[in-house]
Specification:
9-stranded mixed beta sheet, alpha+beta, 312 residues, 27% strand, two-stranded antiparallel sheet
């Protein structure tokens, strides 16, 4: 079995008419599956990384962020933390659901949820349990949650969808959109429907802004209605004696469309290359018994065939 780590991806609010996909690992590829009719998609982040030369500045930024993590947690703990950053993001998104449904955060309940979640993450990643590190992660997580709460209080009128899949059909790319809501782009601006990518990184990069431009194009192709796209960078470093802070950068629809159009052309060139493995993913396995001098029987199994043998 080459398909592993199957996750259902759907609007965490469980409301509205939105796509339902399954995120999988397949032969070292991160893919999204639509069941009816069967189709598969690359993840947006992976597609952009594979088609973009990010250069030394991006490498330096990542190195600087990693060095900061080591200073905060120690090298081994930082390595363990980095292995779970995706899980950390999902937990942050789940807190937005709580804010939407209850209008508040119970910090005692949130601590219990985070503790159990991080314990499971340690076990899933086969990392030795470290209660001190988990408590540090929980405290940082709660600071990010407080940062989101402040943004919602100051800028958001209505939340429609959380971690909801969107598709770019022509380039066979899919991604979950962290947040779709009606919000202000500036502190006193008017409310407009916006796709938001929630980041917990140390800064906002141009590569990330390119990503959210694509996310808006994908959302509008799948559902329509978004007027802006943006990055909300929550902060775990705000002064605990003051109001929680955040960083917010937005792109207008016309700006995003121009960026996404150029990126889409690049992705199409990569997808249509004869060297691309992506259009026909399949696995191989040796079957039966082979005598010396005979040709072995090698069976080719398509992604669709393997997916159809899975009971969800």
């Amino acid at each position: 079995m080459n398909i592993t780590d199957i996750e259902k991806v759907e609007n965490l609010l469980k409301i509205g008419q939105y796509e339902v996909l399954y995120r999988i690992n397949y032969d070292n590829l991160r893919l999204y599956i639509r069941q009816e009719p069967f189709s598969y998609y690359s993840g947006l982040t992976g597609a952009l990384s594979a088609s973009t030369f990010q250069g030394s500045q991006e490498v330096k930024r990542i190195k600087k962020w990693r060095e900061g993590m080591i200073n905060s947690f120690g090298k081994k703990n930082a390595d363990d933390y980095l292995n779970m950053t995706a899980d950390f993001g999902t937990l942050v998104h789940m807190s937005v659901v709580t804010m939407k449904e209850k209008g508040r955060i119970d910090w005692g309940e949130e601590k219990d949820i985070a503790w159990n979640y991080f314990i499971n993450c340690f076990k899933k990643n086969q990392i030795e349990l470290n209660s001190k590190l988990i408590n540090q992660m929980i405290h940082e997580y709660m600071k990010h949650v407080a940062s989101i709460m402040q943004f919602i209080y100051e800028r958001v009128e209505e939340i429609y969808a959380v971690e909801t899949p969107a598709i770019w059909e022509d380039v066979k790319v899919a991604t979950p959109i962290d947040l779709f809501c009606s919000c202000r782009q500036t502190p006193k601006g008017k409310f407009d429907k916006t796709t938001i990518n929630i980041k917990t990184s140390s800064q906002i990069s141009q590569h990330q802004l390119d990503q959210v431009a694509c996310e808006m194009a994908m959302w509008n192709e799948t559902y329509g209605d978004a007027k802006y796209t943006s990055i909300l960078r929550t902060k775990g470093s705000w002064n605990e004696k003051k109001t929680p802070t955040y960083e917010y950068k937005y792109i207008t629809k016309s700006e995003a469309e121009n960026i996404a159009r150029d990126i889409k052309e690049r992705l199409l060139l990569c997808l249509n290359s004869d060297a691309s493995y992506y259009p026909n993913p399949s696995s191989k396995s040796f079957e039966g018994k082979t005598k010396i001098g005979e040709m072995p029987n090698i069976k080719h199994i398509s992604l669709e065939q393997e997916w159809n043998n899975i009971e969800l």
